[in-house]
Amino acid sequence: MSAHEYSLHFLVNELVRSSNVNLKGTNLAPEAILDYFNKNTNQQANTYTPAELSDAKRKLFSNSLSANEFVELYDSLKARHVRDLDSIIIILSHIVDNPEVIISSIMSDGDIRRRTVTPSSSTEFLSRPPWFNERLRLLWDFYPTPEKFEPDVAIGRLSVMEQEAIIVEDLLLCMLGIEGKFIKTPSLTDKQAQRSFHIDRSLDPTLRDLARRMVPLCSNHSLIVRFIEDRLQYKYGLINHALAGALREVVQRYYVFVSQLETQQQQSLLTLQTLWFHTEPVMEMMEVVANIVRILNKGNTIGRAVLDLLHEQTLKLSGHKQAYDICFFLAKSAYKPYLTMLETWIHNGLIDDPYGEFMVQENKDIIHHESSLEQEFNDKFWSRRYTLQRNNTPILFQSSSEMILNTGKYLNAIRESAFDYNDDMNMDMSTSILRIDKQLLMNNYKKLEYTIHEKDLDETLEEAYKYASEILLDLILNKYHLIERFQTLKHYFLIDKGDYIVQFMDSAEDELTKRARDIDENKIQSLLDVSFALTSDDPYKDDVRIKMFHYDLISMLERVINVESSMNINESMEIKLTGLESFSLDYDVKWPISLVINRNCLTRYQMLFRFLFYIKYIERLLCNVWRAHKNGGRRRRKGREKRNIITKPNGAAYLRHKMLHFVQNLLYYMSFEVIESHWHTFQNNLKKVTNIDELLKYHLLFLDNCLRDCMLTSVHLLRHIHKIMATCVMFANAMDNVDDDNDYDSLPGAVVASFNNNFTEQLRQLLDAISKEDGPVNGSSGGGQKHTLTNIIHR
């Protein structure tokens, strides 16, 4: 398939999928529509008037089951000046107008199998025409005859030499599937049954015994012929078709052997003993083939099971050269279509599997435009678009199945990226595909051939895997600047530089202190953009958006832990939630960056940001209390001296200092001891990645380690910290409500003591909870470590 043909195929497939046009129950494959397009479109004059295009779009829109999706896709493709878009739209509108006429012109005898048998139609296949079962003499098998075995003349009345000549001729006929005069076979009730033969009882006993020895050859030939005819049906798949073709070659060689015997018989050189001498080695080979056929018939075997059986038989007979050669030939032939599918997958990233026999299955309902950043916590495209089918994986590829899956996934991701990335914005789709096809071309790759030794195939598979992983990794890291995007996430989500947060809180604090449902999100977004513009020159800052959640951080953690269960958010919680508790950031990610920065990862970034942002805000409140103490303390002391008022310190300054000390140390711990430490490890890991899966693993490991060490993986610990933060907020509000003319020490001592007792008790509970959960960390290289927050609390 050329680059232009591939781009047309993709274009037709996307338009048909998005429009979901109703063709009166007929499901046309993109190949069929493309053929009709090539036959009925003048490539030199494919311009259409605006009225024709408008009418064609109107027809597709009115007959579409997904009209909005169709309009969005069309506008997107039109904006990119996709080649042949208008011609395809016109053709599709013609098909909608006259589906019966168009379909009948598309479907030809030679193409009918390829266009009606698809992987999705795994239970419905074309059946043989009725005349096939009526014309039984088309088969190279015995024609059913009445149950009559008495010949007109008893062969026993003839001389022994005449009997021998007649029985030799009958045996040669039976070897070809034709009944003789004195050797008969009854009709079969089961097409998979072993055929039996009746030899005239009047035949000389010696001749009869010798003939009976050769009858199994005729029976095995009949069984093999019936198997060939049966397995050529569409429902048995390409592997059985290939096996049937190989068996047909074996039978053809067998016919050559019988014709040579017949030549000797016509020259009166073939006696029954000579016939037995020649047929004995052939009988052994046919028995080997017939045994394989019996096993396949017993389980009605298809696909991978056929390959495994042939492989096992080949290994089992490796000590018998002739039997090994014929088994190896059958296995090699049956493996050909499977290896062809495998080569297409590991070298092109495409699946050509009309019968669902390949080890990799494609879920076409999941495309990257829909699944990259949907409102769910898992990235579907990478994990579920292509899945490994263990029941379709032959023994020969069991150990390398994961590598095979990833190889094709890498190439497919590059192909998908061809429609989203252009160095030149004026480059059309076909040019982009051509560039990607040239990039994907692997020079001098070794073709896959069947072998009984698994390691002989590993070298070719590893070369393809290494080649594909290097291309995709280079594409994501260099052309899509993944490292720079990681820096953007760290700068804004992990707040490694707090300059924009200070600017943003100064301007948006009044708005964020409102209830979450009363906040103007457009205003918050504008204030955030201004903060970015004043404090940062990050090239990807425009991709950062605000995100207002309707549930708090604890509920978010519970939703992530119970991602598969549907949880209803308490409405009362949403009413009480403030903007500070619901505020977070989001990130606009395009394909193929969404493979790495998927919704799963973004959820982790958002949890870390919400935690850091809220602690930053509490630090801000306590710093304001400290500032008020510092600026107003001297004035208030002079006022007390003039009025001769003596007040005892109530401990408010000490409690404020203790709270501020804890919050600042908590921020220091999270920012430097956790995030910076794991970020440094992550950067070192990025330097040694060799494929996209390692990149995904290291990125997820970095986020999981940050969440774990920030205690965001434990709802129990997070509740304790949330209580401490709530106490700090209430204390700061109480200090803020003290009148400026009064001394902070005038706050009732009981109130301060209550805050102090609550804060101290909550710290103690947090320490106890951390001590209970401390232990070895899974996957750590140093034998395990403990939460270092214990040291902060002791400080």
UniProtKB/TrEMBL annotation:
Pfam families: GCP_C_terminal, GCP_N_terminal. Keywords: Cytoplasm, Cytoskeleton, Microtubule. GO terms for cellular component: gamma-tubulin complex; microtubule; spindle pole. It is found in: Cytoplasm, Cytoskeleton, Microtubule organizing center. It comes from the Eukaryota. Residues 774-795 are annotated as: Disordered. Residues 168-479 form the Gamma tubulin complex component protein N-terminal domain. Residues 482-773 form the Gamma tubulin complex component C-terminal domain. The keyword Nuclease does not apply. GO terms for biological process: cytoplasmic microtubule organization; meiotic cell cycle; microtubule nucleation; mitotic cell cycle; spindle assembly. One of its GO terms (molecular function) is microtubule minus-end binding. Belongs to the TUBGCP family. PANTHER family: GAMMA TUBULIN COMPLEX PROTEIN, GAMMA-TUBULIN COMPLEX COMPONENT 2. This is Gamma-tubulin complex component.
